[in-house]
Design goal:
Blueprint: E1 7-8, E2 38-42, H1 63-72, E3 79-80, E4 87-88, E5 95-100, E6 106-111, H2 124-136, E7 153-160, E8 163-168, H3 174-181, H4 190-193, H5 199-210, E9 229-234, E10 240-244, E11 258-262, H6 267-276, E12 281-284, H7 292-296, E13 300-305, E14 309-314, H8 323-326, H9 329-336, H10 341-348, E15 353-354, H11 371-374, H12 382-390, E16 394-397, E17 400-403, E18 424-430, H13 434-450, E19 453-459, H14 461-467, E20 482-484, E21 491-492, H15 517-528, H16 532-545, E22 548-551, E23 553-554, E24 557-562, E25 565-566, E26 582-583
Parallel strand pairs: 2-11, 18-19, 18-20
Antiparallel strand pairs: 1-21, 3-4, 5-6, 6-8, 7-8, 9-10, 10-11, 12-24, 13-24, 14-21, 14-22, 15-23, 16-17, 25-26
Helix pairs in contact: 9-12, 12-13, 15-16
């Protein structure tokens, strides 16, 4: 966790909340009987909001945190899919224009005539405040990838309160720069948040305040906003209530005064809330599609929410017990060939997922996917998987493949793999989802046929993210081996699907510490070339090198929306936009 928006999470999403009465309902139809001045939106099961600061850190990456923050503080340049296709949503942005200089080595930004909720104008200095904070604290910023923003932004020069220029270290693809880097900037209220001028201290103070979830609704820091909504309440118990910002002067005027973001411990609890009519905008799991008619009879429409995402399980290449095994390409090939994506998509996801064979989303048509990725380099075959292992020094003992021929020869286990090593992997997986549980069980059964033992432990998504970070082998936290946080999609891309955060050496969301210099060069080329061929080359390389375990990509969710709620398209970047919601009937 979009990060990268990049966002994780989303797919690796996570959230928390405040308090307010639910909207009324009448009869068995579940139709609202009260005034249409509020909406009850169901958050993903077992995902608790836990971060308000509009600057992501690795432990707080998820799309729902980002959605809430963007509703309070509008981005400089908002990229989303709310119109049905991904693009710059100027109505939800502070900037009105971005003019690249000839040669694409700089960009001149124009700000709209906008104001903070306390009446002060939003100026170039508020953007510089974000810029200076990120420059001084880049290693703590989840969006940081060495060599990219802010490293490649060599200067920030303000012309006046509404115009400034950012200069780059070289020419970049404007599409990539706009969608993947400039879209990460959020103007921040310097006159309220800058207490001393030292960027390191200000960063620490803001992050310390953001850790105090109980203080979100009272801390003055969070009262000066630029977005269409403000926090009315934000409870550690799991409910967030947003109220329309009456001082908002941007282009996305909120039509619904009160937005209740509702938490649920399980998908079943959320489904029961839908049945009772106490949710206006919720979801069902793929296993519930056979019940679609029961929800339409209650006054809802069922709308799959497609995502611009990939789903995967990262390996921890620095794990002291299994890292050496994970570094062997043949071992990763054996694992991938043991994953029956077609059956998982059809059976576990009830046909609502598509197989994913590489680092570029395959659920939506695009020019970015390579032929190698489309064709699936490692089709399912546990027989072929077993042959890969036995051909490299492994022998099945007691049902588990064991390294019996250590060494670095072509038919041996490989560098660092000790004799007697058992091919035993364990995953920390998100809890609260029947679909996730079913998929993990199916993978466990399939891997067992190859002779790979796969054990499963579950935890809420926030805990999965916190317990499976980037690490060094000698750190106690580095005992994790595999991580899964993405039943709704592990990683939601910005418009341009490069892998700088995920798979570049040192990338901010490269949880497993994957590193391949050749891939680094391909990723770098994709950010500078205006040709889609550069992204396709990257797509092909990682489809073959397997930095993670590729898994089927599901829809973000199967939404169940009360009839009469409209005015928007579901954002394929997996953000929700309360200001776009309207009761139309």
């Amino acid at each position: 966790m979009s990060p990268a928006r990049t966002r994780l999470l989303a797919g690796a999403a996570a959230l928390s909340a405040g308090t307010l009465l639910l909207a009324g309902c009448s009869g068995s139809s579940g139709a609202s009987s009260g005034p249409r001045d509020s909406i009850d939106y169901a958050l993903p099961a077992n995902f608790t909001p836990n971060w308000i600061l509009p600057i992501g850190t690795a432990a707080h990456l998820n799309t729902n945190n980002i959605s809430i923050a963007n509703t309070l503080w509008e981005p400089l340049i908002a990229y989303d899919g709310s119109t049905g296709e991904i693009g710059w949503n100027k109505a939800g942005s502070v900037a009105t224009a971005a003019d690249f200089a000839p040669g694409n080595k700089s960009v001149r930004i124009t700000l709209g005539d906008r104001h903070w909720s306390d009446g002060k104008p939003i100026t170039s200095d508020d953007v510089r405040f974000w810029f200076d904070l990120i420059k001084a604290n880049k290693k703590e910023w989840a969006g940081y990838n060495p060599g990219q923003a802010p490293d490649n932004w060599t200067s920030f020069k303000a012309e006046d309160d509404r115009h400034f220029t950012i200069t780059f270290d070289r020419a970049y693809n404007p599409q990539w720069m706009l969608a993947n880097e400039l879209s990460s900037i959020t103007p921040l209220p310097r006159h309220v948040w800058d207490k001393g001028g030292d960027a390191r201290k200000v960063w620490t103070d803001l992050n310390d305040a953001a850790k105090n979830i109980a203080g979100y609704e009272t801390d003055a820091l969070w009262k000066t906003i630029s977005g269409p909504y403000a926090v009315k309440s934000y409870s550690t118990a799991g409910k967030v209530v947003l109220t329309a910002n009456k001082k908002y002067d941007g282009g996305e005027k909120p039509a619904i005064p009160t937005v209740n973001l509702l938490p649920f411990t399980t998908a079943e609890a959320e489904k029961n809330a839908l049945r009772s009519g106490s949710v206006d905008y919720g979801y069902i799991e793929a296993t519930d599609l056979d019940q679609k008619d029961s929800f339409t009879a209650r006054g809802y429409e069922v709308k799959p929410w497609s995502g611009w995402a990939i789903t995967y399980m990262p390996y921890n290449f620095n794990n002291p017990a299994m890292g050496a095994v994970f570094k062997q390409l043949y071992a990763r090939q054996a694992v991938q060939r043991s994953i029956d994506q077609a059956s998982l998509a059809k059976v576990v996801f009830n046909g609502t997922a598509v197989a994913g064979y590489g680092p570029v989303p395959q659920g939506q048509a695009s020019d970015f996917v390579s032929r190698a990725q489309k064709d699936n380099p490692y089709p399912f075959s546990t027989t072929a998987a077993r042959e890969l292992l036995t051909g490299h020094g492994w022998t099945e003992q007691g049902g588990v493949m064991t390294c019996t021929d250590p060494g670095t020869g072509a038919s041996q286990c490989g560098e660092g793999v000790a004799g007697g090593t058992k091919f035993e992997m364990r995953v920390l997986s998100q809890s609260g989802s029947t679909v996730t549980d079913n998929m993990m069980s199916a993978i466990q059964s399939s891997l067992a046929k190859t002779g790979i033992k796969f054990s499963i432990r579950t935890a809420p998504v926030n805990s999965v993210l916190a317990q499976t970070p980037q690490c060094e082998a000698d750190q106690p936290i580095c005992k994790w081996q595999l991580s899964f946080f993405g039943t709704a999609g592990s990683w939601y891309f910005p418009a341009f699907p490069t892998g700088d955060s995920l798979f570049q050496t040192g990338g901010g969301s490269n949880f497993g510490n994957y590193s391949n210099p050749a891939v680094d060069k391909l990723i770098s080329a994709s950010t500078t070339s205006s040709s889609t061929e550069a992204v396709q080359d990257y797509s092909a390389a990682l489809a073959e090198d397997l930095p993670v375990i590729w898994l089927p990509e599901p829809v973000y969710q199967i939404s169940v929306v009360r009839k009469g709620l409209g005015g928007f398209s579901q954002d394929s970047l997996a953000n929700f936009h309360p200001a776009q919601w309207k009761w139309t009937g």
